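User: Here's a structure from my thesis project, written as structure tokens. My advisor, Dr. K., wants to see whether a designed sequence matches the one we expressed. Can you design one independently, without my sequence as a hint?
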């Protein structure tokens, strides 16, 4: 692409020219000029080209596909027939689909015939709220072209309700997550013939082309005409290029909008002034801090108080849903003045929606505590700080997570925490992938072991007040170690290198859990703490009563087993039982492995190879399924 300075970036200069109402809508949104990706994509996608678009996060890709989709459907000679679909936009998460839908609605407010239909639908939905004195909606002659969108998400709405809304409103643009879109398209009442269907858009295309969505996506494609226009959009689409054939793109135009930046060497700006391509926005400062795990929360505490202006909205990424479920109870005690809002894929639909809205609408300084479920596409312009406590297991996700800040030219900061040693290799790993990160110097954050110890004590005092938090801590810790062991960059993130005691202190654990990863651990699992776990009580009275009853019953049973006249055998603590179970599991595992090794030794070379191949395939699927868990509930 030619440098944007030589291009007339006025919306009115685009060819083919945009409709007057679109220009009005964009002007009302306050966008005086096109962004480079809009400048390059809109003319191509409005023509008859398939496009594969890669542009940095927050660069305006949503309008780059919505404007062409809408313009083309409104330039047809006749309106899309009843119950026929003209365009489909697929997104990997519900939140993103909802966001695309609302951008489309704000555009269509400026197109009178479409706005009239949308208003009628809204009034039907809120019939109790309908204003009897409101003027009747304007009417348009039959045959007037209009856009009627439908949002398909799953969650509380059943597929039957989706179909009923489709039959009633006859939408011509569908926006949704793959599963729910497929359910609707499977109905014989929904038609996508060659004569009506115009365009398919895959937003976050590389994510949609991943194994987890493959089946649904192929079934959707099977229901669409081959002669159509297709657009693939993402900030990291290039990895998906070899899969384009699967989505039926023929000779697509590739549009890549990258950013030029000063080269870096070992995480420091290169002195020679060399310029290189970057896959992240220029307005986003990508920094790292190398500190032991137990210094991370003290560092975040200092960062939140020393950044000027004070971050109003920040996102803190953790590796798993269970980690979020634990830290949501801890962080409010640590970060004064911040409302902590948890969001993850295992929350019930209603809670997730409520929490997301709470974060977006909050007028107070807020911290969204989340997983990769909120890594892609979400546009919350006031987010100015992204913190990654654990780098994501998929390196592609890294740029999407960071890209929640520094959007549309606004200043943003993304800080990634790495521990000293092998994890520092991640800096070079990212540089090779055109995602350079540099040390955080402004503000300069230093933490001492006194800070770290004070933080650990504070977390422990919170945990000791409620046994439920102890349970959550153990579960969250185990899940985060499992996630760490599944890192794609497995030579950098090795469980073998973890500093267990320091990590346990970082979490404020009361002891290290029994887990196979700690089989060879020779340190002190009690972390130097003398805790009577039998006395550690649940805050919830009913739960505590039940625990005590179980504990007493167990003690009674142990009493019964006591040898006559012998010494009373000490009953294992309730909390020790899980550890005993884990040890048994490890033993069972060992036996199974031995038996398996004996069986394999009797196989022929060919049989062994076949088995290995099969095992490889199963492992690949297993990994993907584990990854999908994070998206559970978000993507159907
Ligand atoms: N021409 C423009 N001028 C200024 N701001 C714009 C323009 N077009 C879009 N924006 C704003 O830029 C922000 C980011 O846009 P959008 O969400 O489409 O980015 P994206 O490229 O899809 O990002 P991601 O890769 O993270 O999904 C939005 O708040 C949007 O309103």
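Assistant: Designed independently from the structure alone:
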């Amino acid at each position: 692409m030619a440098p944007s300075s030589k291009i007339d970036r006025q919306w009115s200069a685009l060819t083919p020219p945009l409709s007057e109402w679109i220009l009005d809508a964009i002007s009302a949104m306050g966008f005086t000029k096109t962004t480079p990706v809009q400048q390059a994509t809109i003319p191509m996608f409005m023509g008859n080209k398939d496009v594969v678009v890669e542009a940095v996060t927050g660069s305006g890709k949503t309008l780059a596909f919505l404007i062409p989709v809408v313009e083309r459907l409104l330039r047809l000679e006749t309106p899309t027939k009843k119950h026929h679909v003209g365009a489909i936009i697929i997104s990997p998460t519900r939140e993103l689909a909802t966001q695309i839908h609302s951008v489309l609605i704000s555009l269509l407010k400026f197109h009178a015939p479409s706005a009239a239909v949308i208003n009628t639908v809204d009034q039907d939905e809120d019939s109790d709220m309908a204003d009897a004195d409101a003027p009747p909606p304007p009417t348009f002659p039959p045959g007037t072209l209009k856009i009627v969108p439908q949002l398909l998400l799953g969650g509380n709405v059943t597929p039957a309700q989706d179909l009923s809304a489709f039959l009633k409103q006859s939408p011509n643009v569908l926006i949704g997550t793959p599963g729910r879109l497929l359910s609707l398209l499977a109905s014989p009442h929904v038609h996508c013939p060659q004569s009506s269907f115009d365009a398919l858009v895959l937003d976050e295309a590389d994510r949609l082309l991943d194994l987890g969505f493959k089946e649904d996506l192929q079934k959707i494609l099977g229901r669409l005409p081959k002669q159509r226009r297709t657009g693939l959009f993402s900030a990291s689409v290039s990895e998906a290029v070899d899969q384009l054939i699967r989505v039926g793109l023929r000779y697509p135009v590739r549009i890549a909008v990258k950013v030029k930046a000063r080269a870096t060497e070992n995480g420091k700006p290169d002195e020679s002034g060399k310029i290189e391509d970057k896959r992240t926005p220029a307005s986003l400062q990508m920094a790292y801090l190398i500190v032991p795990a137990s210094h991370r929360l003290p560092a975040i505490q200092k960062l939140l108080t020393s950044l000027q202006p004070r971050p109003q909205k920040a996102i803190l990424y953790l590796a798993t849903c269970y980690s979020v479920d634990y830290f949501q109870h801890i962080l409010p005690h640590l970060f004064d003045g911040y409302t902590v809002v948890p969001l993850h894929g295992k929350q019930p639909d209603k809670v997730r929606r409520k929490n997301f809205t709470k974060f977006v609408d909050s007028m107070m300084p807020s911290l969204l505590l989340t997983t990769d479920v909120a890594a892609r596409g979400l546009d919350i312009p006031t987010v100015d700080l992204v913190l990654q406590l654990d780098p994501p297991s998929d390196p592609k996700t890294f740029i999407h997570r960071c890209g929640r800040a520094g959007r549309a030219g606004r200043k943003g900061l993304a800080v990634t925490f790495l521990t000293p040693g092998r994890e520092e290799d991640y800096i070079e790993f990212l540089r090779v992938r055109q995602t350079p990160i540099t040390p955080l110097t402004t503000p300069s954050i230093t933490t001492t072991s006194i800070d770290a110890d004070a933080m650990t004590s504070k977390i422990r005092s919170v945990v000791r007040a409620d046994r439920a938090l102890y349970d959550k801590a153990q579960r969250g810790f185990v899940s985060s170690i499992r996630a760490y062991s599944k890192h794609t960059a497995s030579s950098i993130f090795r469980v073998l290198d973890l500093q267990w005691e320091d990590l346990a202190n970082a979490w404020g654990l009361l002891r290290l859990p029994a887990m196979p990863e700690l089989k060879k651990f020779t340190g002190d699992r009690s972390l130097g703490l003398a805790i009577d776990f039998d006395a550690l009580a649940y805050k919830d009275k009913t739960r505590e009563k039940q625990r005590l009853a179980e504990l007493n019953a167990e003690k009674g049973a142990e009493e019964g087993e006591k040898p006559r006249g012998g010494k009373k055998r000490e009953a294992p603590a309730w909390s020790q039982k899980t550890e005993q179970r884990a040890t048994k599991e490890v033993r069972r595992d060992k036996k199974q492995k031995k038996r398996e090794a004996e069986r394999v030794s009797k196989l022929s070379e060919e049989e062994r190879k076949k088995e290995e191949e099969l095992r490889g395939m199963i492992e690949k699927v297993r990994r993907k399924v584990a990854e999908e868990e994070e998206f559970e509930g978000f993507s159907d």
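When you compare it with your expressed construct, this may help: Confidence is low (pLDDT under 50) at residues 568-575, 621-636.
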